Automatic annotation (TrEMBL):
It comes from Oldenlandia corymbosa var. corymbosa. Keywords: Methyltransferase, S-adenosyl-L-methionine, Transferase. Gene3D superfamilies: Vaccinia Virus protein VP39 (3.40.50.150), Winged helix-like DNA-binding domain superfamily/Winged helix DNA-binding domain (1.10.10.10). Residues 61-267 form the O-methyltransferase C-terminal domain. Pfam families: Methyltransf_2. GO terms for biological process: methylation. This is OLC1v1004782C1. GO terms for molecular function: O-methyltransferase activity.
């Protein structure tokens, strides 16, 4: 097996000859295989690949044509009528693979966002749907004087590690959210219809002080397909994945996010920064 991997530069191979003309092969890492080991942030490409190879993921694409022609969700068609999140709750192994994959991809672009966005200074941060707490941990690592709340459902938080400065709070964002000066909703709203996304934002609005803000981190799709950059085309690829894997979710344009914010009661929204294919939007009550 290792010889095959070496032939594709996944590992490197050094051949050593001994005095008896015997051959020994020594294998080592290459830049490619290092991607599957944790980096300085504890991140690797292994979890996303495990998700991409899971049968629930693969079978979803086989139902794409049926969903386009007849309606419904490709993921639900492929997985006994369960949506992505219900399936993760029913199958703990899949749930763990999915959560680890989301944490890995999230870490990659949060590194870039934290270099550009400065809106976390001197505030109490709440991350809504924060998974294992990696996003909040990265924020606190950059701003060690702050503390924060990582808010998610019980079956996710039971696997979340204890992290300095982070309080894990169990709950349901469709019913309520804890209080915080800056509420981060990262790659959550695209999973849901306008109606449900508005409900989530309304819960944030109710828990937010007048001087606070909601920080939405999402892929923004363009209004028109004409003259797009490679990052804009990547955003449209995200939109196809969202259609296939979420219950009535969708990627949105900047105007659609502004409309969502206003329907939830927010007075203003603005784009704070753009990093890679992601956009950081701030929503204000006044």
């Amino acid at each position: 097996m290792f010889l095959l991997l070496a032939s594709h530069s996944v590992v490197k191979c050094t051949v050593v000859y001994d005095d008896n003309k015997g051959v020994k092969r020594l294998y080592g890492l290459t830049p490619l295989s290092r991607c599957f080991l944790p980096d300085e942030h504890g991140n690797s490409r292994a979890p996303p690949l495990a998700f991409l190879r899971h049968s629930a993921y693969i079978h979803t694409w086989k139902k794409l044509k049926d969903a386009v022609l007849e309606g419904g969700s490709p993921f639900e068609r492929a997985n006994n009528g369960l949506n992505l999140f219900e399936y993760g709750a029913e199958d703990p192994r899949f749930g763990m693979i999915f959560d680890e994959a989301m944490q890995s991809t999230s870490t990659n672009f949060m590194i870039e966002i934290l270099q550009s966005y400065k809106g976390f200074e001197n505030v109490k941060v709440l991350v809504v749907g924060g998974g294992f707490g990696a996003t909040l941990d990265m924020i606190i690592s950059k701003y060690p004087s702050i503390k924060g709340i990582n808010f998610d459902v019980p079956h996710v938080l039971k696997s979340a590690p204890t992290r300095p400065g982070i309080e894990h709070v169990e709950g349901n964002m469709f019913e309520w959210v804890p209080k915080g000066d800056a509420m981060v909703i990262k790659r959550v709203l695209h999973d849901w219809s306008d109606e449900i996304a508005t409900k989530i934002l309304k819960n944030c609005f109710q828990a937010l002080p007048d001087s606070g803000k909601v920080i939405v981190i999402e892929v923004i799709v363009p209004e028109s397909p004409e003259g797009l950059s490679s990052l804009s085309r990547l955003a449209l690829t995200h939109d196809m994945k969202i259609f296939s894997f979420t219950p009535n979710g969708k990627a949105r344009t900047e105007k659609q996010f502004d409309d969502l914010a206003k329907s939830a009661g927010f007075a203003a929204s603005k784009v704070a920064c753009r990093t890679l294919e992601y956009c950081v939007l701030e929503l204000y009550k006044t």
